[in-house]
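Quick one: sequence plus NAP SMILES, need structure tokens.
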Amino acid sequence: MTPPRNPFRGLRAVVTGASGGIGRSLALQLADAGADLVLVARSRDALEAVADEVRARGTTASVVVADLATTDGVEQVVTRLAGSRIDVLVANAGVGAHGPFVDESPERTATQIALNCAAVTALTHAFLPGMLARGVGGVMTVASTASFQPTPGMAVYGATKAFVLSFTEALWQETRGRGVRVLALCPGPTSTGFFDAAGAGSGVMARGRQTPDEVAAVGLRVFARAGGPTVVSGAGNRVTANAHRFVPRGLMARMSALVTAG
Ligand SMILES: NC(=O)c1ccc[n+]([C@@H]2O[C@H](COP(=O)([O-])OP(=O)(O)OC[C@H]3O[C@@H](n4cnc5c(N)ncnc54)[C@H](OP(=O)(O)O)[C@@H]3O)[C@@H](O)[C@H]2O)c1
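Reply:
Sure thing.
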């Protein structure tokens, strides 16, 4: 039997937020599939360590240290990669903030919107035209099960992920039939540094977390077969993500608050 064609072999993929968590897993699994990597995040040492892991898998890796919550940081990535062939963008970097919105600092709110929404949009705008011109590769965004309903206690975060989902599904339709793949990967609670970085207690959404490797594998499997526009990782998470179809919006917000409270 002929093995399925590996759509990643020889492609060059940019993975944002590749210094740890889901982004690191996505980068390493892309390397396993034969892709060359450009790894982006703020922490140089952690990125260099992931780059070494990529190279040990037999492909190439370069590192771009940038704060994607700033327009300068996004510009730096775009400028650095201008003129080079980028086949796949994995727009994974993202942060949340846990707690009541009124207690959230304006800076923390702005960072979530800048990183989770503006950077995803700007990087896609920079790299998608080349993919369309060549008719190869595509864009995977990392949204969330939080994309599907409001998330009281993480109000801004949930709203940014709703943006990512809407943006990605619209792009999927705009680009259909033009040789590129577009997919929103929607993880549920996953064992990474995310909850610590969000200032959530250790009990928040602690039960049934997936591993970042499991989440990455789901995303890349669906991306490889040009599925989409959306995949939710994990059977339980698919139930959660679809609950909004059957539950009135007010009740959905109340139920969601119980989840984010821990
Ligand atoms: N973990 C979950 O339960 C979960 C669930 C649903 C969706 N997600 C989404 O999955 C994605 C990855 O999160 P994760 O769970 O892997 O969290 P994580 O372990 O905290 O990783 C976040 C990554 O983003 C990078 N990053 C953070 N701020 C950045 C900035 N200003 N500029 C550039 N890079 C930045 C971090 O690297 P540096 O600190 O080195 O910059 C790190 O590589 C996020 O979009 C998140 O919203 C996570």
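The chain has a mean pLDDT of 95. The radius of gyration is 18 Å.
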